[in-house]
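Re: Re: token formats

Sure, here are both.
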Amino acid sequence: MNKSELKNYFLKNTPSGEALSRKDIMSKTEALGINPRVARYMLKANFPEITKVSRGKYAFGGDPTPAPAPVATPAPTPEPVMNFEKSAPISLRSVSSVSDDEIYVPSKDATFIKWGEFSKLKKIIESKLFFPTYIAGMSGNGKTMMVEQACAILKREYVRVQISPETDEDDLIGGFRLINGETVFQKGPVVKAMERGCILMIDEIDRATNKIMCLQGVLEGKPILLKKTGQVITPAAGFNVISTANTKGRGSDEGRYTAASIIDDAFLERFVAVVDQEYPPYATERKILLANAKSFDVKDTEFIEKLVAWSNVIRKTFEAEGVDDVVSTRRLCHIIKAFSIFEDRMAAIKMCVSRFEEETREAFLDLYTKIDESTLDENGEVVGETNAAGDNVEVTVDEDGKFVAPF
């Protein structure tokens, strides 16, 4: 059952006007055999039928399936007027590109730390074999940067294509453009990458619609036909496709990635390998933050240690379904940047967690306050009390959204 279906269940089974506590909603959801996280995302989805009465109290009302609005009768379409006058011929230049600025060798980033599946990805790129790879993982854990920096280290040309629900064949393969009064077929980034033997990185591929199926032939590594011009494009040696996504092409029922789509299985089958990208472990994330701190001339290493411990506890609690959100590695880097400007720990954290809803934000701030008042050892553990990295610690969240931990 997804969040919309769960909403309809509560609409049908809750008396009109009756307010339910967050705890009651979670209990009823769990009694249905549904992951309570679906209920949390339902409450965050801003459904018009759900009203937040007060802190932690929600009322369900309204018709879950409202009647459709009346459809206006369209005006009759006038009969087309045929014009048999001979049109001026369209001038077609040879298939070309306006520019190749999107193809480049990325610069090395001094803040990049090699970790996880980087060595395998580097070997794939270094081999120059056609080996389509799909990298899946939560937002902000370094998927895109890993591909970019592997290309930078190997000095490989790279094209990054950002996918959205509006991306279509014209954007990817190419289409006709009016340039200097002439109609010209402009090659898209996919065709350019094939001809140059580049690494084609398709970012957020799970945001695409079925229009992405135009790349099915490309993912086989064979020549493709440009239907609009009749030209056959043969991929040069070294061409490869690497895609990144937050899901594995099966959508996101829990509501975390609402724009994620279900990708056709025949399309997914053409990827040779799938890489699961997790958040970095404690020691690696510490190195990443230290490198970022150096770039912003931040010297408060104690703050960095406590930020990493804080994020680890939050992720452990998220996995245990105690909270709805996590603090990503990218967001920790944002906090370091904010700290370099304001030179105040709590001000930097508050500014960078303000995107979360009120209850989650307050829970995160409450947890950091507890960790900030504690002493950590070299492994990020609270000395003499508990493990701040989240191991062997019973961390829960009470009804008011506060972390309960033996700090």
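Second one below.
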Amino acid sequence: MTQEAGGSCPSPRDVPRTDRLYAITRADLSAGLRAAQVGHVLIAWVLKHGEPCENLVVLQVPSRFALEELEKRLAGRVEPFHEPDLGGQLTAIAAGPECWREVSAIGLMR
């Protein structure tokens, strides 16, 4: 993403929705683990779909249950990542630009 005059990045609302790749992880994981899961799921996305969108939006849902429910709602349109070190738990999903409506109310990862 390029910077606008004055050194600020454009707001996600200013980027066309068709240019976004969404990585969604769980807020109930530690910050370091969340970051790692985002990396894992993005690698999985690229290996399956090729070059990702230019803009990445990283979101978080509150729990494993919430992520599992989101994966079900987006069935067939997401790339999941299951962490082997956590017994194969679903820890992140990546969703393409076509999922923007379904993910628009999810908060940014903190």
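The mean pLDDT is 87. The chain is about 30% helix and 25% strand.
- S.
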